[in-house]
Amino acid sequence: MSWTVAPEPHDSPVAAALWRAYYTEVSDRWYLLHEGRRTDPGELEREIAARPGGDLAPPKGLLLVARYAGEPAGSAGIRLLDDATAELTRVFLHAGVRGRGGAALLVRAAEDAARARGATRMVLDTRGDLVEARALYARLGYTETEPHNTDPYAEHWFAKGLG
């Protein structure tokens, strides 16, 4: 089986399905940890609709979709924060394909896309309970840094030079 990674319109059915899967997983994980329940379905729908991904549209953004054996398996997005800084976001793989190298492939493709847009630095944020994500970023050379945003759910911020 093999991986491919390619740009995808942020508003395509594939992008929407991956966004729903990503948001459902991270939201449910937070609520189960903090409140012992899954995300309220109405809240889930509102939050998914409130973040349609327009910031991942060219020229200042890009959504990448990974396919495993031809099937959509994950995503990663970038958005330019300024001329030199890109932000990595929406890094996600379906559970069934994790551990097969897709996450590193997606992040590296996002780094290449950011470099192609002139970025010399990539930043990202994540939560404390997303320990797998934090381990991935550290393994790929990201180091913890000071906050670059005020996202209420962000607990860890990372950066990496793209030189």
UniProtKB/TrEMBL annotation:
InterPro entries (UniProt xref): Acyl_CoA_acyltransferase, Bact_Acetyltransf, GNAT_dom
Domain of life: Bacteria
GO molecular function: acyltransferase activity, transferring groups other than amino-acyl groups
Domain N-acetyltransferase: 17-163
Keywords of this entry: Acyltransferase, Transferase
Protein name stated in the entry: Acetyltransferase
Organism whose genome encodes this protein: Streptomyces viridosporus (strain ATCC 14672 / DSM 40746 / JCM 4963 / KCTC 9882 / NRRL B-12104 / FH 1290)
UniProt lineage: Bacteria, Bacillati, Actinomycetota, Actinomycetes, Kitasatosporales
